[in-house]
């Protein structure tokens, strides 16, 4: 790993998923989507900022035409626990009526964010809605979400790296890890 990233790795209690594990799983998810969505034009609705790396890596592997909308959505607002309030920034003229939609996010935790987004998407009557996340936490959901694919199922721990952050930091890590309770940097 580059020396600039190596210094940040010491802020992790442990590495949960290596870059190679993440890459292999994203490849497998893309292969399944390519097989299932052959011949369709897919409208991707991607939740950013945490999903940035996952979305970029997955989209580069998709073989069908893609329209892309990005949303800024969060229920964390800087901490390690949800506030319970989902804030979403919707693009102007957002219309997915009759389209095949793929909703992508980095992590399914409480279900609040994906549930709120899914409800809004379904209200526009897409032809289909498929929801995929990189990580799904083993925990009780506060809101039900119909999930079509999850890259990895993980324990209910706060993770950083590969786009996911803690107070704006650690997004650039190529791995996914558990943050030390008292990070050094």
Structure description:
This protein has about 180 residues and is an alpha/beta fold. The protein is about 25% helix and about 30% strand. The chain has a six-stranded mixed sheet with strand order 4-3-2-5-6-7, with helices on both faces. Strands 1-9-8 form a three-stranded antiparallel sheet. It is globular and about 50 Å long.
What key attributes describe this structure?
185 residues; alpha/beta; six-stranded mixed beta sheet; three-stranded antiparallel beta sheet; 9 strands; 30% strand; globular
| General form | globular
Largest sheet: 6 strands, mixed
Q: Which strand order do you get reading across the main beta sheet?
A: 4-3-2-5-6-7
Helix percentage range: 25-40%
Compressed to H and E, one letter per element, the order equals HEHEHEEEHEEEE
Distance linking N and C termini: 18 Å
Tally of individual helices: 4
List unreliable stretches of 5+ residues. none
The rounded Rg comes to 16 Å
Tally of strands: 9
Structural class: alpha/beta
* Average predicted confidence as pLDDT: 89
Strand fraction = 25-35%
């Amino acid at each position: 790993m580059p020396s600039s990233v190596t210094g940040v790795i010491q802020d992790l209690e442990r590495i949960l998923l290596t870059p190679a594990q993440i890459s292999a799983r994203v490849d497998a998810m893309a292969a399944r989507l390519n097989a299932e969505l052959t011949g369709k034009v897919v409208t991707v609705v991607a939740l950013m900022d945490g999903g940035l790396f996952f979305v970029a890596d997955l989209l580069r592997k998709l073989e069908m035409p893609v329209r892309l909308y990005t949303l800024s959505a969060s229920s964390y607002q800087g901490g390690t626990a949800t506030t319970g309030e989902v804030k979403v920034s919707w693009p102007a003229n957002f219309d997915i009526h009759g389209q095949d939609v793929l909703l992508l996010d980095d992590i399914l935790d409480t279900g609040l964010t994906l549930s709120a987004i899914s409800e809004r998407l379904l209200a526009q009557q897409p032809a289909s809605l498929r929801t995929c996340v990189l990580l799904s936490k083993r925990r009780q959901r506060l809101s039900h979400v119909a999930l079509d694919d999850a890259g990895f199922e993980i324990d209910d721990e706060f993770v950083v790296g590969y786009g996911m952050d803690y107070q704006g930091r650690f997004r650039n890590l190529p791995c996914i890890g558990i943050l030390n309770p008292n990070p050094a940097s």
